[in-house]
Design brief:
The complex is a heterodimer of chains A (366) and B (322). Chain A is an alpha/beta fold. Chain A is 63% helix and 6% strand. Chain A folds into 2 domains: 235 residues, no CATH class; 90 residues, abc type-2 transporter like fold. Chain A is elongated and about 90 Å long. The chains are: A alpha/beta (366), B alpha/beta (322). The structure holds adenosine-5'-triphosphate and magnesium ion.
């Protein structure tokens, strides 16, 4: 009873202080909104509208058709027309275009032959994503009206795309973004929450009261669980509104998974707070943890493509498991029960970090 | 002391420390401290900066682990039994440790809840405290906007809400003006009247003089303890008041003398400490000055607590140097 009262006292105090801390309070909403804009709009692995220049040395009906086909594909946006390969190279070097299209004078004759490609693509391959996008063009069938008789040089694979038929990155990115944002805010907020009291001297008074380590930790953590769930709501709503991100699974299960993930992150934040002395160190450590999370969890790059060592590290990060769960729930319409191995890992991570944090936290100054 | 007497006296002791020591790396903050604080009195802690006052207080609350020795506070072994002690003690930290982004009232309410006071008790105690410590008009102000003295009143109010039997106050009046300091001490004596024991550290001699008993610490060592009057009576130095037109010259002339423990200038006058081992102190000092051609009026005078403080801290310093 007294324990509950103390827990409640800490919890309400925390919320009150949080309400007054405009910056932190702003971040609760600001971070999800900013990130969803950033990742939703700017980060796009399916690149379109690459700036391009054309050197049309053939100048025939067919070569002009090729150009309009290229533009219609939306992969390229023709920004300049030049007359030589050297000029294309020049534009590439200066970074004004990413792709140069060279149509040689004997373009039509080359089209008849199957031994040589008819035209050349000069691609700024420094960004692999651009290269990959431009590669799509290589196999673009030249089934133009006049060339309808021609067999395409390369046999195209039939691509069947299940979960994101329009191949929009946002659909794939947003569910993972829930995890990224929660990792970023939850770990940092809790790590800082305890350290701040230590830095400001409040802890010396607090640990001299009957409050127990567990009460203190829980009282500090509970308000942030609420905040985490608010953030999940913001992201899911914005994702649906702005990017038509589907929610194929049950909403309740999305929240349940998020809750578990939030708890694991809060436990980690508390653990960090028992390891560092200043808010600055806490933020650094949270960041130290955040970077591999964002890079290795499968959020940015496919998990399967990573080297074994990276995969092992990734398995130790809560975000990796959450991303699997949340993509399953939101995009594939899976049920939580089908995803139990990752769910269990998250639960285990929460219990482990929380226990370690409570054990490590001493009501002492040394 | 016989065993029987000791048994009797322990129950009357709020704090008993035996050989309490604490080091931080190479720094020995508290060294072999033996301390007895009887119940129901104001016990003062006097000592220069870094002498280990705060560290001792923290050791006594169980906030720091001792490197050696142990303490018994209100019948609880510290640090082993510190948790059960927390309900019974109030601690006012040297640095302001309430929440600056909460109001006076919110802070008091938070502390009252943490100590598990019922709603009715909270209301009564908080309104008492607001009145007693003159915080009524400030109750909706943020603690961060309070002046130094107001903060310290708030801290004391917070430390006493749960009516602790023992109050540990670490420099509670360091930022308080003289009038407020008197009020503050009146409040302390009111608490003592209700049976509270108070351990208070201070740098002010006038405050030290108001304590029932005093301990003087220097570099972590207890160099003197007793009632203020007793300490003055027991001093191993005599005080000579020197008055001359050339105080700086007097200073230089006496500073090198082996029999002069310390010189404190007060305007045109100087307080000179000489050991009791030289007979007739005033004559002795006059002689020393005449030898270098300075005419000065020298009179014996009664020692003050500051003289005691200077004498004992200087003594421990020269011993260390020797
Ligand atoms: N946490 C700590 N880590 C390292 N050294 C410490 C620590 N706390 C205290 N000390 C050292 O112990 C010594 C005693 O410090 P303490 O704070 O107890 O002195 P004090 O008497 O309270 O001084 P003041 O009058 O300035 O408050 C100092 O030399 C200080 O540097
Ligand atoms: Mg101190």
């Amino acid at each position: 009873m007294a324990a509950l009262q103390r827990l409640w006292a800490i919890l309400t105090k925390e919320i009150r202080q949080l309400r007054r801390d405009r910056l932190t309070f702003g971040m609760i909403f600001g971070i999800p909104m900013l990130q969803i804009m950033l990742f939703g709009y700017a980060i796009n692995t399916d690149v379109r509208q690459l700036s391009a220049a054309v050197a049309d040395q053939a100048g025939t009906e067919l070569s002009r058709q090729l150009q309009s086909r290229l533009e219609a594909s939306q992969v390229l946006r023709i920004v300049a027309r030049v007359d030589s390969a050297a000029s294309l190279r020049e534009l590439l070097d200066r970074g004004q275009i990413h792709v140069g299209v060279l149509i040689p004078p004997d373009f039509e004759r080359r089209l008849q032959q199957t031994t040589r490609p008819a035209a050349q693509l000069l691609v700024d391959g420094s960004d692999p994503i651009i290269l990959a996008s431009a590669r799509q063009l290589v196999s673009m069938p030249l089934t133009m009206d006049t060339a309808a008789r021609l067999e395409p040089v390369v046999r195209l694979f039939e691509v069947r795309n299940f979960y994101n038929p329009e191949r929009r990155s946002a659909v794939f990115v947003v569910p993972g973004l829930i995890g990224v944002i929660l990792t970023m805010t939850m770990v940092m907020f809790t790590a800082v929450a305890i350290v701040r009291e230590r830095e400001r001297g409040n802890l010396e008074l607090l640990i001299n009261t009957p409050v127990s380590s567990l009460e203190l930790m829980l009282g500090k953590v509970l308000p942030y669980i609420l905040i985490g769930l608010v953030q999940v709501t913001v992201i899911v709503l914005l994702g649906a509104q702005l990017f038509d991100v589907p929610l194929n699974g049950a909403l309740g299960e999305v929240y349940l998974a998020a809750l578990l993930f939030i708890a694991a992150n809060l436990g980690l934040g508390l653990l960090i707070s028992t390891l560092v002395g200043t808010q600055f160190q806490a933020i650094q450590m949270a960041f130290f943890f955040f970077l591999p999370s964002i890079l290795l969890s499968g959020f940015m790059f496919p998990f399967d493509g990573m080297p074994r060592v990276a995969q092992l590290i990734a398995e130790a990060l809560p975000l990796t498991h959450f991303i699997r769960v949340i993509r399953g729930l939101m995009l594939r319409g899976a049920e939580l029960g089908q995803l139990w191995p990752d769910v269990l890992v998250l639960l285990g991570m929460f219990l482990l970090t929380m226990t370690l944090a409570v054990l490590r936290f001493r009501k002492r100054l040394d | 002391m016989t065993g029987a007497q000791q048994g009797n006296s322990t129950s009357e002791l709020a704090i008993e420390a035996r050989g309490l020591s604490r080091r931080f790396g190479d720094v020995v903050a508290v060294s072999g401290l033996d301390l007895q604080v009887p119940k129901g009195m104001v016990y003062g802690f006097l000592g220069p900066n870094g002498s280990g006052k705060s560290t001792t207080i923290r050791l006594l609350c169980g906030l720091l682990l001792p490197s050696a020795g142990s303490a018994r506070v209100l019948g609880h072994e510290v640090p082993g039994d510190a948790e059960r002690l927390k309900h019974k003690i109030g601690y006012m930290t040297q640095r302001f440790s309430l929440y600056e982004d909460m109001t006076v009232l919110e802070n008091l309410d938070f502390i009252a809840r943490i100590y598990g006071l019922s709603r009715a008790l909270r209301r009564a105690r908080i309104s008492d405290a607001l009145q007693q410590y003159g915080l009524g008009e400030l109750q909706h102000h943020f603690a961060g906007t309070l002046s130094g003295g107001q903060r310290q009143r708030l801290s004391l109010a917070a430390a006493t809400l749960h009516r602790p039997q023992l109050l540990l106050l670490d420099e509670p009046t360091s930022a308080v003006d003289p009038q407020s300091r008197r009020d503050f001490w009146d409040a302390l004596f009111a608490l003592v009247e209700q049976g509270t024991t108070i351990l208070v550290s201070t740098h002010y001699m006038d405050e030290a003089e108001r304590c029932h008993r005093l301990a003087i610490l220097d570099r972590g060592v207890l160099v003197a303890d007793g009632a203020p009057l007793q300490l003055m009576a027991d001093m191993d130095c005599a005080v000579v008041l020197v008055e001359s037109s050339v105080p700086r010259k007097v200073q230089r002339a006496l500073a090198a003398q082996e029999t002069v423990r310390s010189i404190t200038q007060l305007g045109m006058r100087q307080r000179v400490l000489v050991p009791h081992t030289v007979g007739r102190p005033a004559e002795h000092v006059r002689g020393l000055l005449l030898a270098v051609g300075i005419e000065a009026q020298c009179d014996d005078t009664a020692p003050s607590l500051e003289d005691v403080f200077v004498a004992v801290t200087q003594a421990s310093r020269s011993e260390k140097a020797a």
